[in-house]
Specification:
The chain is an alpha+beta fold. The chain has a single domain, classed as Cytochrome P450 (Cytochrome p450, Orthogonal Bundle). The protein is built from 17 helices and 14 strands. A hairpin with an 8-residue loop joins β12 and β13. The longest helix has 19 residues. The structure holds protoporphyrin IX containing FE.
Length: 386
């Protein structure tokens, strides 16, 4: 049976979880016709996990978004994906992530030092937004002074990704590409370029040839955008849920080691990426529904994370859940989030610093959600001190 579910309705946009129980029970393989192209949505944990592992039938070659886009960088299937993923992975080994701990802690403290003698501030604007952007700038090796501009480009990039027609964002996307290309050119002209990720992309060869600019820009972009919007949302979502129930915030104040549990539960309950897309390589029959070849399918991580067959009381945000790490917030399989350990380190550091500095924080209101329908985070989260 199909139901009148729309990912764009007021109810779903206000709280995506309003739709999950109905999707699970009535339309676990849902067809949404009012989008160009129309798409299917999988919401059961088992189906989403199986599709993420099955790169043969569920292809990443035509983009992660609802529109068909050409294969580029890591937005592709093996062997192209394997080549780019192993290349970038060199900069994301557990040892290199661990080595970033001291300066990430210093950066979190520095940002909080700026929020002194105030009775109110915004968790998004003043803390959760700048932290991951500055971190990814340092990893890529690009200037930090322009983070406000990067934010505008980053927002444009995800809005364009989720829309039927990306034209309204074209100008901003072009400005972002021009900036990235200038960074690439600068390194090409240097005798001793810095040891950063952009230099790695510039110096890498494939079959004796340098990587083409569109491939370099795709990887650059995925790290630049993927590395900040999502981590910002993880921090805002987690603070929001804890402050909504002050007793939970107090538990973290009393026992900061609970931060990790809180973050994993936040990833399960409010995943910053609600779902991403695959394209079927052949007809796939699931739960009595046949998805035709070449169809876009949204793998709904957030709905899977509330599947009552996997998680007990899935609609409860709980700091006592034992197996919340099984969530699909970072995906699964060969495309499993490359930055998951970095994101966890950033968010853990941010939460610990915030709880320590502002034990008496209270929520002014729930702020406002970010725009793209497939993402979930707060673009404002006003709080009061004391
Ligand atoms: C809480 C924060 C984050 C969330 C929720 C998140 C979520 C995801 C998800 C769901 C995927 C899977 C994509 C797919 O299956 O098609 C993914 C992939 C990816 N993420 Fe993240 N991400 C986060 C942080 C980061 C950070 C900090 C970085 C980099 C610095 C990053 C870089 C990437 C890259 C490069 C991929 C593509 C991997 C591939 O295709 O092999 N992410 N992320």
């Amino acid at each position: 049976m199909n139901i009148a579910y729309s990912p764009f309705s007021d109810s779903t946009m206000t709280d995506p979880s309003n739709a999950y129980a109905e999707l699970h029970a009535e339309a676990p393989v849902h067809y949404y016709a009012d989008y160009d192209p129309p798409f299917y949505t999988l919401s059961k944990y088992e189906d989403v996990a199986d599709a993420l592992r099955d790169t043969k039938r569920f292809s990443s070659h035509w983009g992660q978004g609802p529109r068909f886009t050409p294969p580029m960088g890591m937005l592709s299937n093996p062997p192209q994906h394997t080549f780019f993923r192993s290349l970038v992975q060199q900069k994301f080994t557990p040892a290199s992530i661990r080595s970033m701990t001291p300066w990430i802690e210093a950066l979190a403290d520095e940002l909080l030092d700026k929020i002194t003698d105030v009775s109110k501030f915004d968790v998004h604007d003043d803390f959760a937004f700048p932290l991951p952007v500055i971190i990814i700038c340092r990893i890529l090796g690009i200037p930090e002074k322009d983070i406000e501009k990067f934010k505008v480009w980053s927002d444009a990039s995800v809005e364009a990704m989720g829309s039927e027609d990306p034209a309204p964002w074209a100008e901003k996307m072009e400005a972002m590409a021009a900036f990235q290309l200038a960074q690439v050119e600068e390194r090409r002209n240097m005798d001793n370029p810095p040891d950063d990720l952009v230099t790695l992309l510039v110096q890498t060869e494939h079959e004796g040839e340098p990587l083409p600019d569109p491939q370099i820009l795709s990887v650059f972009n995925q790290l630049f955008v993927g590395g900040n919007e999502t981590t910002t949302s993880l921090i805002t979502n987690c603070v929001w849920r804890l402050l909504e129930r002050p007793a939970l915030w107090q538990r973290l104040v009393d026992d900061p080691d609970l931060v990790e549990t809180a973050l994993e539960e936040s990833l399960r309950f409010d995943p910053p990426v609600l779902g991403l897309y695959r394209t079927t390589n052949e007809p796939v029959t699931l739960r009595g529904v046949t998805i035709p070849e070449n169809a876009k399918v949204m793998l709904h991580y957030a709905a899977a994370n509330r599947d009552p067959e996997i998680f007990e009381n899935p609609y409860e945000f709980s700091l006592d859940r034992k197996k919340n790490k099984r969530h699909l917030a970072f995906g699964l399989g060969v495309h499993f989030c490359l930055g998951s350990e970095l994101a966890r380190l950033e968010a853990r550091t941010a939460m610990k610093a915030l709880v320590k500095r502002f034990p008496d924080l209270t929520l002014e209101n729930a702020g406002e959600r970010i725009k793209p329908f497939f993402l979930w985070g707060r673009k404002r989260l006003p709080v009061q001190v004391g």
